[in-house]
Amino acid sequence: MSSSRLRSHRRAIPGATVAVVVSVLLAACGGGDDSTSGAAGSAGPDEPSGSITHLTHVDPATFEPYVAAFKEKYPEVTDVKIERLTNYATEVKTRMSTDDYGDVLGIPASVTPDQLPDFFAPLGERDELTQTYQWLNKSYEGKVYGIPDLGNAQGFLYNKVVWEQAGITDYPTTPDEFLDDLQAIKDSQPDVVPFVTNYKDGWLMAQWENYRGIPSHDPDVVYDTANSDAPWSGGGDYEVIDGLLYDIVARELIEPDPTTATYDETKIKIGSGEIATMAVGSWAVHRAGRDIEKAGLNPDDIGYMPFPVQHDGTFYAVTGPDITLGINVHSENEVTARAWLDFLVDESGYSQDQGGLSPRIDGPVPDVLADFTSQVELFALNPLPPGEESLFSDISTASGIVTNDGKYRQQIVDDARSGNRDKQEIFDDLNAAWADGRAQAGG
Amino acid sequence: MSAPTQADSPTPTTTDRPGAARNLRVPRGTRPRSWRATLTPYVFVGVPVGLLLLFTYWPVLNMFHYSVTDWDGLDRTKNVVGLDNYVAAFTEPDNLRVFYVSLYYFVASLVQMALALYFATLLSFRVRLKNLWKGVLFFPYLINGVAIGMIFLNFLKPDGGLDAFLTVLGLEEAIRQWTGDPALINITLASVSVWRYMGLSFVMFLGAIQSIPSGIYEAAELDGANRWHEFWFIILPSIRPIVGLQVILAISGSLAVFEVPYVMTGGGNGSETFVIRTIWTAFERNMVGLASAMAVVLLLAVLLVTWIQRRLVPERQVDIA
Asked: Does A4 reach chain B within 8 Å, measured CB to CB?
């Protein structure tokens, strides 16, 4: 009953229409499989000149000042076209089945490490570049294929005024204390939502994935998880992180109806104090702050707090790349593309302007995060060892959990609200699926 | 299927066969011209058929190919894995649970038929402002599905239009989380679907009812039949093929539900349908091979239902509409 039935009853194929549309959609991403990476490093000029295209998911206006400065530095360069793809992850993947996907672009998360050489030009030796840059996760067999535009620390965005009014002056140090603090907010300010899940926007539910490594303070958490048959047990990171999410929801510290509120609404409400806390990367301090200011509220009311776990009295936060920029292996102007990439990450000040950590090890900390970094120790996760770069993502896909997608955490929220499965049942199911995925992916 | 009936008809139609046309119209000896006359229709028909093959059949063939590979949507190589994807499509519990959601939509479409039949019967009798009511009932079907999703997203959210309306009526107690309550969400979404498609069912029923000769009603009235008798003994038997057709459409439609739940909930809170899960498998889980197999399964299921429909409701009887 839910497809086009305008066609006369004689044909009666509404469902078939949808099926065909889906198949066309799926098939449209095909093709281009027999083209090999032949054009790499071909006939470009030696000095940056001409024009290049940069594919991005952010507002092109953001780049205007940097493009102007870049053209000033290299007068031969005629243009850097900034092309925005609104649904970046899906659209760029379709583009990548051709050779025409810009010169500089954000490497989508769905590219597995072993596919990097097929699509992106090598930028240098890993051993060398790690002296200068951090978070070089887009590497394969000792070569680096992308450099991050900026980095994020992982914690919680919160409204300082609301937390202070509840009588809380120190960051919570354990998950239980975090829950008690949220409860205190709920008790003292009944109109305030203590924690918003951002359930409706699945990509924000995926934020919880970024906390791994913090509870155990283990930079090898990805490797350990890939080699465990039961990551959701024994106080492991996944158990602590998803357990905290479950408890927040089960103790009814979240918005009454998680299925309706979008991030566009919640980011303003955290500025106005209608919402106290949300799980989001540190990029939000700057970007949500900007929108809060536009809405006529005070952006200084929001702050960033660490994940509630301490080791020897110290808070830790994992840092990681926001978007990792790569160069199209088929680019006809690789020299200019490389100059633009280097300019963005080294000289432009882009990361600081956007409120992010610098991809350079010696880079500055942005002002909006200075308070956070003065109280929290930052560390980055280690990449998987050579030869096993794709192991984690293979298991994640084969298991059907897809840890970097918001869906399975939405499921946790669903179960915590309805009581269909208790925490242990959820973890048992996840462990079983993970072990099954490991068996399939040869982990 | 109008072509076969034309071919079977006793009077030969020249347009069906270009060769025949040549013999009739063109005098002998002008061969080049007749060549052109022969080719012209093929040129005309060739363009749309070519486009159809290129943009519909070729992608579908591709999909059949992907469905037996482990392709992730990006990789340069596609390894053939045989029927593994089809096995996974039917054995993964998460892929089967979505069919349970389809039941809500199927039940809702029965409600939709009842409503449509009620209004169609009502409006087939003499009613004031008949055409206005017809327009009002049919209008929702003309709105784009994505727009409907957006409309109801705002209408049903907490403190949205529906809640405000209930408050005005003094029915605050009836207010629920229309999409937040897991026990309610599929009923809510299926109701939106009823709102959207009721107009179409209504028009189909109305067309069938209006094709009943008015003399039958007059005869029935002379025999002392009331409105209920007219409905039960005249209208319902006359439109039985349309009712059967609607049931079949309800089955295939409820398997392929997509736009409204995708826009309103993205498949969250237990509202995931088969098509939403297929899209997720292809683009979030990055298993285009498996997703293609699921799409093939849906295609075959719908073709099967359509085939059954054509067996149960032969062409000639449906023509009553």
From this structure: no
